[in-house]
Amino acid sequence: MLKLLILSVFICLANASIRANTVVNNFENEVRQNKRYKPIWSDLDTRPLPEWYDKAKIGIFIHWGVFSVPSFGSEWFWINWKASKNNKKYIDFMKNNYPPGFTYQEFAPMFTAEFFDPTAWAQLFAKSGAKYVVLTSKHHEGFTLFPSNRSFSWNAVDVGPGRDLVGELADAVRSQNLKFGVYHSLFEWFNPIYLEDKRSKFATRTYTETKLWPDIRQLINKYKPSVLWSDGDWEAHDDYWRSTDLLAWLYNDSPVKDEIVVNDRWGIDIPGKHGDFYNYQDRYNPGKLLKHKWENAFTVDSKSWGYRRQMSINEVFTINQILNQVVSTVSCGGNVLINIGPTKEGTIIPVFQERLLALGEWLSINGEAIYGSSPWHSQNDTINPKVWYTCTKTDYNASHPTAVPSKADRVTAIYAVMLKWPQNSVLNLADVTAYLHSGTYKVEMLGNEGQYLNWNITNGQVQIQLPDKATVVSQHAWTLRFNTK
What we know:
With 485 residues, this protein is α/β, with parallel strands linked by helices. It has 2 domains: 41-369, Glycosidases (TIM Barrel, Alpha-Beta Barrel); 387-484, Immunoglobulin-like, CATH 2.60.40. It has helices spanning 2-34, 41-44, 51-56, 77-82, 88-97, 118-127, 165-175, 192-199, 206-223, 238-241, 243-252, 319-331, 350-366, 433-437, and strands at 58-62, 132-138, 179-185, 227-231, 261-262, 294-299, 334-340, 387-393, 411-418, 426-429, 441-445, 455-458, 461-465, 478-484. The strands form 3 sheets. The protein has a 7-stranded parallel beta sheet. Helix 6 packs across helix 7 and helix 6 (118-127) packs across helix 13. The model is unreliable at 1-14 and 20-25 (pLDDT under 50). Residues 1-16 form the signal peptide. Pfam families: Alpha_L_fucos, Fucosidase_C. It is an enzyme of class 3 (hydrolase). Belongs to the glycosyl hydrolase 29 family.
C-alpha cells in the first residue's frame, strides 16, 4: 500500500510539472500573438523565438548575383577591383580578359541563369536535410534578384535572367515543405544616394527612406519570408538604418509577424546584442554553449561565399568537416546555415551537390540527435573532445531555447555523437557515467537499433563496446542514444 501511495505522489508531481510547462508555453504563445512591441531594443529583445527556427537546426545559404559572372576572388569582386589597396590581381584579371573601359554593370547581361531550375534546387536542398533556405535578395553590389521598385535596370527582371529569381525559388522551396528566407544587404557600395548620406556622416537618411525601406517592405509583403538575414550594417549606427522601427513593424504588423526571425546585423555595435538569433561574425563557432540562440553561417568553399571558377578541391570542405560544424554547433545551441554559390548559368556545381547529398544521407540516419534537439548539461565530453552531446525533451523553451534541461523538464533521450571511431571499437566517456551508473539507461547506435550495447564503469569513466564497424550503417559520424529502459 505504501509503495502505491508513493507511486501516486510521483505521478501527481509529474502531471503537475507537465501542466505547469503547458501553461508557460500557452502564455508565451499568447504573448507573441497579442503583444505590440515598441521600437526600442529592450522591448524587442523580449520577443520569444518562433519554435520552428530552433527545431530546424539546418539551413542552406545561397550567394548569387552579378558577382557570379566574373566568379573571381569572391562575391566582393566589384569593390576589390575598384576600391581595394590590394587590387592588382583584379586589375590584371580584367585587363587580361575584358576590353578596355569595361564596367561592372556590363557583367549584368551575362548573368543569364538559363539553366536555373528552382524545382531541382529545392529538391536538392530537401535531400540535404535542410529545413530552411536563405537566398541573397541583394548583396552589397545593389543588384536585386527580384523586381525591386527602386532598382530600375539593376535587377534580375530588367536585365540578365529576365526572371523573378526570389519568387521562383520561394515557391519551389515551399513546395518541398521547407521555410524560405531572404538575405538583404542594408548598404550598397556604389549607390550614389547612400554615398551622399555617408558623406553627411549619416545625418541624412535619404537612402534609408527612399531605397532600403521600400525594398524590404516589398520583399516582406510580396514573398513573406520566414527569415530576414540582414548584412552590410557596419558603416552606420542602427538609428540611421531605423532598425528598431523596422523590427517593430516586422513583429507587430507585417504579414509574417508571428513566424519571421531576424539576425543581429542592424548597425555598429549591435551584433551579438540584439536579434532573434546572433551571427556575431561569419563562420562563427565558439565551441561552447551560448545563452542566446545563435547561428553558424559557413561556406562549403572555404574561401568564398560566391562561386569561384578558380576554386580547387582541397579548398572545399569535406563531409567530415561539415559534420564537425553541424554537430558542434547544434550541441552548443546553434543552427548551421551552410552556404553554396551557384554559377551565373544557374547551376549548382557537382561537388557542392555531393556534399549536400552526403549530409542528407547522414541526417537520414542521425537526424533525431539534431532536429528538435536541445543542449544537454555537457556539450563536449570531458575526456573525449571528439564526442558532442545533445538531448531531446518534451517542452520547448521559447524564452531561452539554449537552456540546458531544468528539473521540470522531461528528457526523453541523451545523444552522444562521435566524430572519430575509437581504437578497438571501445568508446570512453565521462559525462554520462552517472546516468549509466543508475542502471536505468539502455544504449543503442542510431542506424543499428535493436542492438543494445554493453558497457563497464571504471574510476568514474564508462567504456562502451561498439558494434563491429563493418556492420554499422552510418559512414562518417556515429550517434549513441541513451534512453530509459
